[in-house]
Amino acid sequence: MDYAPGLTAVRFSDAPHLEAQTDPATGVCTVGMALWLATSDKERYFMLLHEAAHLELKTRDELICDSHALSVYRRRFPRDLMPTYTLLLKVLDPADPVHAARLQRFRNQF
Ligand SMILES: [Zn+2]
Predict the structure, then answer these.
(1) 11 DSSP assignment
(2) CA 28 to chain CA centroid, nearest Å
(3) Predicted pLDDT of residue 2
(4) How many Å lie between the centroid of ligand 1 and the Cα of residue 79?
(5) 42 C-alpha to center of ligand 1: Å?
(6) What is the mean pLDDT of residues 21-42?
């Protein structure tokens, strides 16, 4: 699969249940308007770092992209990591075992 070198555009959608997804070929990130409106600037920054990580690292692996996005975010806001976690809480369901494991692994990096 060919990957765009990074995010090329951010678009918004009213599609139900859409959180954020990026077309790897074009680099266009589509964000659900409801999520965008429910997030802070730092949560949005972390979200876009995560989406960009999919392109930069050429992977669909969510855990790898969470870790990469956190490392970039941490360099800019080392004393304010909580928005990274609150963003994940807004898009993941702790009752889902896969999501719960992702949240646990993320917390362990704090
Ligand atoms: Zn992802």
Answers:
(1) E
(2) 14
(3) 87
(4) 24
(5) 17
(6) 96
